[in-house]
Specification:
Layout lengths: L2 H12 L13 E6 L2 E7 L8 H11 L10 E5 L13 H7 L4 E4 L11 H8 L3 E4 L3 H7 L1 H9 L3 E8 L4 E3 L11 H13 L2 E5 H7 L14 E5 L11 E4 L2 H11 L3 E4 L3 H10 L4 E7 L8 E2 L10 E8 L3 E8 L2
Parallel strand pairs: 3-4, 4-5, 6-11, 6-12, 8-9, 8-11, 9-10
Antiparallel strand pairs: 1-2, 1-3, 7-13, 12-15, 14-15
Bound molecules: ligand AOF and zinc ion (ZN).
Length: 325
């Protein structure tokens, strides 16, 4: 197998941490001896062992000896850390076992690491190659990257509209527009994100649960968007008045990803900020309202978004737009 194939495996392993690791990154690692993977690891959840440590521990706990590591290469989807956090530095661990070579997809933008993990390995005489499958790794870790590089959470907008383009009837009365498969799809987004936000009208009108009821893991922190709130607020919700204040709260609370679920005013507000990183537009194949509240109109190119997929399930089409870099 080629280095990129091993890195692809790292990324596949890392994906199992979705929704569990925030605000940490998704990381996968494989240990390769004579062109064969002898152990695998991934970051399973916030506060838990890093990918490299898991791969090493898994191998040793199966009764194997560490001697073989001198003849092994390590592939990892993020630069090994160099800091003492919840766990000791992974770079030190790799040095201790004297691995031959380390292949890394991308540098860790966390200022506590930022190149010093690679430096540590090289200083110890380990050969390091950086950048294999970098685009894949960066895409997988877009929440983590936004948090550290842009100092703001990654914003995802999602809405469902009828086949004739309405997100609600005129009365705004809660109406199910998308089908069961799309509901699961939305729950997967909720599971991946650290926070979820709805507008005041949606909260009062729909009383949505805004939970993931399919996939497990920590539930997203709930926010309601309103510039003038004067009723009682369910204690589950935190209030947000504008995007700058919201970014500040997210940075303070370590929330690196936000799913904005509506309604129209809130979606339009976020589209106007130009800070939208992803849009998931669900459109019913058959439901027609004839009249009602139109879904948000947006110019994807003007927002720096590319249409990246258009798929369908039994009852709906799902179109996804993503920020270019
Ligand atoms: C790695 N491998 O699997 C992960 C890394 O609080 P801690 O100790 O878990 O440290 C979190 C930071 O460590 C995180 O922000 C990122 O910089 C790095 N995560 N590094 O070598 C891993 N999850
Ligand atoms: Zn680490």
């Amino acid at each position: 197998m080629k280095p990129i194939d091993y890195i692809r495996r790292c990324i596949e392993l890392a994906a199992q941490g979705k929704g569990w690791v925030n605000p940490n990154p998704l990381v996968g690692c494989v240990i390769v001896h004579e062109d064969k993977i002898i152990s695998e690891g991934w970051h399973q959840g916030y506060g838990q062992a890093h990918a490299e440590r898991m791969a090493i521990d898994e191998y040793l706990s199966a009764g194997n000896v560490a001697e073989i590591f001198k003849e092994c290469d390590v592939y990892v989807s993020l630069e090994p850390c160099s800091h003492f956090g919840k766990t000791p530095p992974c770079a030190d661990l790799l040095v201790k076992h004297r691995f031959k070579r380390v292949f890394v997809s991308m540098l860790d933008p966390n200022i506590l690491v930022a190149g010093s993990g690679i430096e540590k390995l090289r200083q110890a005489g380990i050969s390091v190659e950086v950048g294999i499958g970098e685009a894949l790794a960066r895409s997988q870790n877009r929440f983590f990257l936004s948090f550290h590089e842009k100092k703001r959470p990654y914003f995802i907008l999602k809405w469902a509209e009828t086949s004739d383009g309405f997100i609600a009837p005129e009365s705004r009365f809660r109406t199910a527009i998308s089908g069961v498969e799309s509901q699961k799809y939305v729950h997967a987004l909720r599971q991946e994100c650290s926070a979820i936000l709805v507008g005041r009208t949606t909260l009062l009108g729909d009383n949505p649960q805004l939970t993931d009821r399919y996939f497990g893991g920590p539930q997203p922190v709930k926010f309601v968007f309103s510039s003038s709130w004067n009723g009682d607020l369910d204690e589950d919700f935190q209030m947000v008045e504008n995007v700058q204040q919201f970014i500040k709260i997210c940075m303070e609370q370590g929330l690196n990803s936000v799913l904005v679920e509506g309604g129209l005013q809130t979606l339009e507000y976020f589209l106007a900020t130009g800070l939208v990183d992803e849009v998931h537009q669900i459109q019913s194949k058959s439901m027609v309202l004839g009249t009602g509240i139109n879904g948000p109109q947006f110019e994807s190119a003007a927002l720096g978004l590319d249409k990246v997929s258009h798929t369908e399930n039994e009852s709906d089409f799902i179109t996804v737009y993503k920020r270019k870099s």
